């Protein structure tokens, strides 16, 4: 099943209590595409980079079967850069520097050969750009969207227009409260689903994730890890694993959605074990299935 991923590609300078990782490959679409690539052999990536985005980075994406022909390279430009420092609990971070560079003028053009993609995943870019992408897609079967506090606060009306055309919306608990204006996550979910997306996932970091559908609520645990080095990109990695499972499922129903949440959680748990995309670049399918089984075992009770 063809998958189109649109979002940012970036270089990150990451500081955590457990080490530093400068010039790390990052960006929302990078994490999403790498995560999804373990489930699908037809992942198409659209984004923009500068001439400093080296061949080794393109090669990494290509070795995972990701189609990079949709990535615009701006000569003499610089790739989007972000620098951040995480606190000891790894749940809060300080942004030290943001340089949009070529991403500031990102105008997503979807190549003709990408426009028949069945599954669309829109990373947390400007909602006006997300709408522009959807206007170029012929007849998508499923649209998944991510966002962030910056867009909820800065472009709330544009985001709400985009949500009318979305099937699945993924955001974290603080973003859900901000968008809904209500502190209760169950009520927040009802209010947000009324904006358009009938399927909603609220991520809660180390406390797991909640799936809301017409048929009820599913709560997935977080995987208990002894070592967490870097939570950057974990949410995007979750989205990639979630999307990847749905794309390979024979049909999308509540059972497959719940499985997809666990696969997304499994992929996110791998992501935080190394800095940046290092762990995502070196997984195999057996590891992923073993971690998925571990998630099942976490809440299983024998009769």
Automatic annotation (TrEMBL):
Domain Carbohydrate kinase PfkB, residue spans: 26-278
This protein's UniProt keywords: Kinase, Transferase
Gene3D superfamilies with a match to the protein in the record: 3.40.1190.20
Tagged with keyword Transferase: yes
InterPro entries per UniProt: Carboh/pur_kinase_PfkB_CS (IPR002173), PfkB_dom (IPR011611), Ribokinase-like (IPR029056)
GO molecular function, one term: kinase activity
Record's GO cellular component terms: cytosol
The protein, known as: Sugar kinase
Organism: Prosthecochloris vibrioformis
Species classification: Bacteria, Pseudomonadati, Chlorobiota, Chlorobiia, Chlorobiales
């Amino acid at each position: 099943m063809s998958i189109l991923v649109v979002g940012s590609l970036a270089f990150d300078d990451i500081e955590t209590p457990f080490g530093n990782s400068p010039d790390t490959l990052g960006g929302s679409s990078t994490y999403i595409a790498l995560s999804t690539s373990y489930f699908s052999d037809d992942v198409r990536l659209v984004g923009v980079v500068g001439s400093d985005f080296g061949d080794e980075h393109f090669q990494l994406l290509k070795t995972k079967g990701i189609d990079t022909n949709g990535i615009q390279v701006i000569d003499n430009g610089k790739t989007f850069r972000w620098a951040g420092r995480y606190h000891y609990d790894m749940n809060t971070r300080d942004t030290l520097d943001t340089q949009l560079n070529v991403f500031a003028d990102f105008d997503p053009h979807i190549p003709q050969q990408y426009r028949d993609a069945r599954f669309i995943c829109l990373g947390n870019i400007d909602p006006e750009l997300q709408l522009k992408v959807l206007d170029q897609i012929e007849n998508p079967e499923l649209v998944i969207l991510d966002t962030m506090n910056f867009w909820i606060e800065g472009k709330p009306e544009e985001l709400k227009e985009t949500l009318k055309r979305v099937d699945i919306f993924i955001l974290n608990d603080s973003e859900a409260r901000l968008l809904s204006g209500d502190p209760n996550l169950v009520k927040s979910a009802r209010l947000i689903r009324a904006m358009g997306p009938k399927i909603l996932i609220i991520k809660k970091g180390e406390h797991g994730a909640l799936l809301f559908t017409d048929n009820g609520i599913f709560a997935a645990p977080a995987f208990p890890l002894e070592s967490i080095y870097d939570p950057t990109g974990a949410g995007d990695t979750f989205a990639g694993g979630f999307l990847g499972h749905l794309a390979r499922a024979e049909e999308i129903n509540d059972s497959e959605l719940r499985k997809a949440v666990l696969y997304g959680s499994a992929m996110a748990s791998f992501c935080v074990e190394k800095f940046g995309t290092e762990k995502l670049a070196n997984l195999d399918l057996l590891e992923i299935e073993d971690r998925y089984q571990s998630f099942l075992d976490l809440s299983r009770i024998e009769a």
